[in-house]
Every structure is written in structure tokens, then in C-alpha cells.
Amino acid sequence: MKLLRFGAAALVALTIAACDGKTNEAQVNPAPTDGVLTVGLLGDIGQPPDPDIYYANNGLAIVLNTYEGLVQYEDNIDTVKIAPRLATSWEVSADKKVYTFHLRSGVKFHDGTAFTSDAVKVSLQRRTDVKGGAAYMTAGVQSVDTSDPATAVVTLKEGNAAFLDYLASPFGPKMISPSALAANKGSDDAQTYLTTHDIGSGPYTLAAVQTGTKYELTQFDGYWGTKSPFTKVELPVYNDSSALELAFDKGDVSAIVAALPSSDLKKYETSAAVNSYLLPTLQSALVTLNPSGTFFKTAEARLAFLQSLDREKLIPQVLGDRSELATTLYAKGMIPDGADKQEINYKPEVLKAYAATLPAGTTMTIGYATGNPNAQQLATIVAAQMATLNIKATAQGYPTAQVFDWVNDPAKGPDAFFDGNNGPDGGNPYMWGHVFWDKSGGINYFGCDDPSVDADLNKAVLTGDNALFVSAATKYASSGCYLNFSYNKDWVVAQKWLTGVAESHNIGANELNFAKLGIA
Amino acid sequence: MIGFLTRRAGAAVAVLLILTAVVFVLQQYSPGDPVKAYLGANASPAAVAAERVTLHLDDPLVSRYGHYLSAAARGDLGTSYRTHRKVTADLGAFLPATFELVVVAFLFALLLGAVFAMLRTIAGTFVRGVLLVGATAPPFLLALGGIILFYAHLGWLPATGRGGNDDGFLLTHSLVTGDWAQFGDGLQHVVLPALVLAVAPAVSIGRILRASLQQTLSADHVRTARAKGLTEVAVFGRHVLRNSIGPGLSMAGLQLGFMFAGVVVVEQIFSWPGIGNYLAESIPAADYPAIAGVTVVLGAVYIVTNTVVDMIQALADPRIAL
């Protein structure tokens, strides 16, 4: 049996070795002549591509190319700036309660319905009614005045300086056709219908859905904006990154957006056959510490651990060029003058001194989400480094569902958690602070909370006061529960002939606007 | 026969009740919050808590199980937390792909198993060697090796997906309607995953059949048949194969059941849109309605398969009474 197993391994290894040379050759693949763009997905999109339901990353390209919001983040810049989309301009009242949007003319939905202020009202209402994960964005809307079809006046219950960011967010409310919604409403606000159709105004329509296998978009002839040469976009699903890479190398896939592990970065960065892009995002790698665990009960212990992380070595070693050392508490550039400075520097001696006071045999568990190779590598390396301090540390993977259950009972979680890539819904500091630091946010894994931080954030969002946002961040940093480990970029690999990649990407979206892509 | 089928139906109901009960107990005691899969990662605890009430996740286990059984009796297996569709609709969409993959793989397994057992030439020895080596390799390694060789290097076969735009019984439908282009495309897509799935069962079937054939070949009645001057083909066909096929059939039935359970890895790597892929994506998301649905289907398939095999065995060998 041992001989057979050896034979099996040898056969597969020989196959791989025999083929390896050929598949790694620098070969420029030809551009498609059939007008089909193929964007490979790693894993299925996970949820229906309904703009009021979809709250994940993998399938955002489908939502963002079939639907449009009133505003978006400006493409191809590395700062947060709101840009027009279906609204050409807007005014905000001094108290941040009334938002007046002047709507783009000549826009039609995919069913032929003209875009008017009525669509704004219906779209914001559906977001609230469906009660999806991002329904909080419209929860504060008091009314929408539609007396002028070309102008929508949105009045909020109280001031909200983040409201434009809610609308610009890739997860923000998208405009839907009121007549298509009414025709397909059913008993669930058209949720069933929108699993396989769309009712948006984007440059593409959802043509076919084969869950787990393939999604297909076709160009919308009546689109108001620029059209690309791609009349059809196919998004095949690959469950294995090696298979996806093979398809890309052969030219069967035109582009891969933020799906490949960082360990493959060098291979494509140095290849003359393809283009590799590192594009700005609001994403970061994060470290979260568990105050309910045995090891990190005190802020002293938590801060000592954070100072023991040699980020200047770990980032290039594990994350490569797609990441850089984070020096601020919020996302890069979120606070314009960088006043949210992160004061955690590499001082391993602090943890060494602290570890010396611990009883012999003290253990620590460092967690990561299964399926995230970058976080796994970081956790494994750091766990190994702990051994030099006589701390027995173990790196352990956890399924996503389990990670999100810790907040209900943080004692069940690991002592520390490495998040390879995470980010806020949008570019306003409130959206970062609330989601990561507030116990009522979505990604405060261990419920590490400081009510004064929440109070600062809740007050700051009313007016957009950056000083208060900085105050909240500084207070939370002193808890030692959190470290902004690195700023991450979106890594896109594309065939040589594909143009407009950087121009079709914006800091909030983490996806490409297919209408802006072209052929060299 | 009616008594046999009634007994099997009763056993099937009991097995399915136990399987679903196990899934519910696992759901109760497993760590993990499925509502995040339903609402999205950034959903607030308040939204999650509200949705837990809507989905009855905070109800007592017995009450939830009771509701599940009551709904299941009406053909409703609940709604998937991940796809937001009825589990029955998901199963209806994914099961045909798995069914066709397993059927093709089973045909490969029978063919290769027969070659393994019967071919007594140098070519037969070579096939046996390749199958034995293949059967000892982990399926994911075999699949990746196959993709690299047949897709990336030789370009003979596609790497992933099912081909065509029909997500139902693609091969069957295109065959019946005479859509040869679609049929050819579907066949090209199914060959590699089916072969990977078939290798290990082929060896199991082949080994049992070979041992059974060897035993029968040395039996008295075979010696008598040869002494009577029957040709070797007639001896083999009439007196050896029929008497030896019982254990092979029994093993084939067992392997068919295992194939349905073993499609998870193969469907994952080849992005095959079947229930194995559906199950693999449902587990990390703690999508228990989907997991329970697949469990029910796999349990039912396993029972039906074994029942059919028992019936075929009885037909092939009159000594076996049902």
C-alpha cells in the first residue's frame, strides 16, 4: 500500500512537473473577438445579487454593473471623494438633515421605465422594507419629496454627516425601477424575482444565473453612459485558486479581481504576459484581541502583544506589495490630516517582560478565518514567535459562521484574531469606527466596548466633526483591543489586452465598472 | 416483493427521521451563527437578533424540529440562509447535475471495474496498475493532476463547470432532443470529474468481481462445462459470469451510494453545480436548512440505491430471496 501511495504521489507530481514548464511560459493571450469579457470568481457569490440583500464582496461586480446609486466614490483616485452617478449634483443642509439631489436626465431602467424622483423614494423604501444587513443606511430617512420628477429631496429624522457615504457605498441603496418592482413584487418585495433578474439601470443586465457555476451579464442597449466593447460579461465560478489561475494563464479568464492569494503576487508582478494592478481600497488587515480570554484580560497585556508584532517584517513576508504598514487608526486617508495616528511601535521587550510574570505553561490561541491564507500565515508565524517568549501559542482556523458567533459569548473565541482583509461599508470615519469598535457594530468580534467611544462616534456622525472621530479612535486604541495592521490594496490581474482597469475602479467598490473597460 | 418494499419504505422513514434529528442536534450545539450568512458580515447585532426571531432560531430545539418535520411532510424543507431560496428549489436545481455526474461516473466505474477484473492481458495489467495508483491518490490531488494534464497541458477537456446553459438534466435533455452540440459540450465537461469520481469505486468493484470470478472458474460445474466441450466464451458467459456477478453487484450498489456522498470534493474542485458543491458552501455558513435538505436527499438516494441493487441481485441469482 505504501508503494502504491508513493506511486500515486509520483504520478501526480510527474504530471505537474511535466506540464509546469509549459503553463508558466510568458505567453501573451489574444483579445477576444466575440465581445465576451470573462471575469473569474473564486467561490460562489454567496447571496442573491439583490442590491438590498447582497452584503458580501465576491458578487459585488454583478450588483454594481446592473444597478447604480445616486452617487459613488470617484474612480481612479486614492482618496475618498463623492462623485455623481444618477444624481448630477446635490446640496446638503447645514444641519445634515436635508439632502437635495438633482437627477440625471435621459436615464432608463432595464425595463424601459424612465428614472425620476419616484424611483428614489421607492428604492430607499424597499431597502428599509427588506431589512437586509445594510438596511441601517435608510433607517434614518423620514421622507422623500418627489414633487419634482427631476429632483429628490431626502429628509432625515436627524442630521447624518455619513449619509452621502451610505449612498456612495457599494452596499448603499441602488435605484430600482418602480414599475418593475410593482410587476414582480409578489409577497416578498420581489426578493425571489431578484435572485435571477435585475431591475436596475446599470450598463449591464443580469442575463443568466447558474448558482455555483456561472453568472452572465449582457450589455444594456439603452444605457445613458459610456459603453464598452464587451457586449457580454461571463463570471464563471472557480472553487479552487489553482484552477482559476490555470484558466487565467490559458487566456480563458480575462481578469481576476481581489481573489488570488498574496503568495502568487510575485509570479504575476514579474510576468511580461499579463498586467498586475495594485489599486487603492479602504481595506486593512486587522488584529483583534479578546478581553474575555485568559491571556488578554488587561489592557497592559493587550498593548504588550500588539507591540510585539514586527509588522515591518511580517507585511512584506506575508502580504507582499499589496499591503503597507498602517500608521493611522482609521483607513488610510479617512481623516484628512492624519490626526488619527496609531502609536503602536515594535517593542518586543514589553511582552517579554510581561511574559516573565506569567505562570509557566501559559497558553494563547491565535485565530484566523479558514480559507484566508494570508491570515493563516500571519497567525502561524506569530504563534511560532511566541515560543521564544515561553508562551505556548497555537494558530487555529475558524469557519466564518463561528467567528461571527463569538460576540454572543466572547469567552468561546480565541485570545487573538488575525483578519487578513476587512473594511467598512464606506469612506466616512463613522462607518469604520461604528463597525469595528462599537459593540452594536457588525465586526467587533469580541464585543470589546468603551461607551465613551460609542458616544463620541454617535455625536460626530451628526455633524461630521473630525476632532470627535479622532477622540473616539484614540480612546479605543488605548484599550489595546485593536490594531490596524496594514493598509491593503485590491490586487487585479488582467490580460495584456484589457485596458481601463485602474480607471474602472474606485476606493470603495473593490470591483470594476465593466463599462469602462476596453481592448488595446 | 410488496412486503420487501414496505419494509424498506418503513426503514427509509426511520433513517431519514434519525438523520434530520442528528442535523438539528448538531445545529443546536455547534458554534456558529447562521444569521450572518443570511444578512451579511457587517450586519449589526441588532439586525441579527431581529432576524433570529424571524427565522425562529431562538425557539426550543424540539419545537423547531417539530415545525421542520411538519413542513417537510408538506414538501417544504425551509429556506436556505445563504441563497435565500427554498431548499427544495435549490435541490431541484442542483440535484440533476449531481445525478448525471454520478451516473456517468458509475458507468465508468463499471467499465473500468470489468476491465480490472476480466482483462488478462498486458493491457489489463497496465490498466490495473494505473487504477490502483489512481485509487490511492487523494481525490483532490487526482483532480488537480487531471486539470493540469488534460486542460492546461493537452487542452483536451475543460477544467470546470458543466457546459451549456441548461442547469437541469443537461445530458439527458440534449440527448433526447437531439441537441448534439450541447450534448457534446456536456459530455466533454463531465468526463474529467466523472473519471476522478470513478477510479476508487472501479478498483473496489474490480477486486471483488475478480476474486469472485477466480473462485467460480475453479468450481466443479465450470470444469464439467468445459469437459462437455463448450467454448470458453459460452462457459464464461453462461456459467461463470452469472454465478460471480452477485458480489460485484453488491459492491457496485454500495459504491454508487458512496459516490453520491463522495461528490463533495470532486464538485468543489471542478465547480460542478451539484448538491456536493451546495453542501460544501453551506457548511462554513452554518446554513442548516440546506445541510438538512442535502442530508435527506443523500439518505433517500442511499436507501433507494440499495433497494434497487437488492432487487437486481435477486433477479440475477434466484437463490436470493427478498
Automatic annotation (TrEMBL), chain A:
Keywords: Signal, Transport
Keyword Transport: yes
Gene Ontology MF terms in the entry: peptide transmembrane transporter activity
Signal sequence annotation: 1-18
The keyword Signal belongs to this UniProt entry's keyword annotation: yes
Stretches assigned to the Solute-binding protein family domain: 81-430
InterPro entries in alphabetical order: Peptide/Ni-bd, SBP_5, SBP_5_dom
PROSITE patterns according to UniProt: PROKAR_LIPOPROTEIN
Domain of life of the native organism: Bacteria
GO cellular component entries: ATP-binding cassette (ABC) transporter complex; periplasmic space
GO biological process assignments: peptide transport
Family to which this protein belongs: Belongs to the bacterial solute-binding protein 5 family.
Name by which UniProt lists this protein: Solute-binding protein family 5 domain-containing protein
TrEMBL record, chain B:
Recorded topology in the membrane: Multi-pass membrane protein
One Pfam family hit: BPD_transp_1_N
GO cellular component: a single term: plasma membrane
Sorted UniProt keywords: Cell membrane, Membrane, Transmembrane, Transmembrane helix, Transport
TM region(s), chain numbering: 9-29, 101-119, 131-152, 190-209, 248-270, 290-309
Domain of life: Bacteria
Subcellular location(s) per record: Cell membrane
InterPro entries in alphabetical order: BPD_transp_1_N (IPR045621), MetI-like (IPR000515), MetI-like_sf (IPR035906)
UniProt similarity note: Belongs to the binding-protein-dependent transport system permease family.
Protein name: Peptide ABC transporter permease
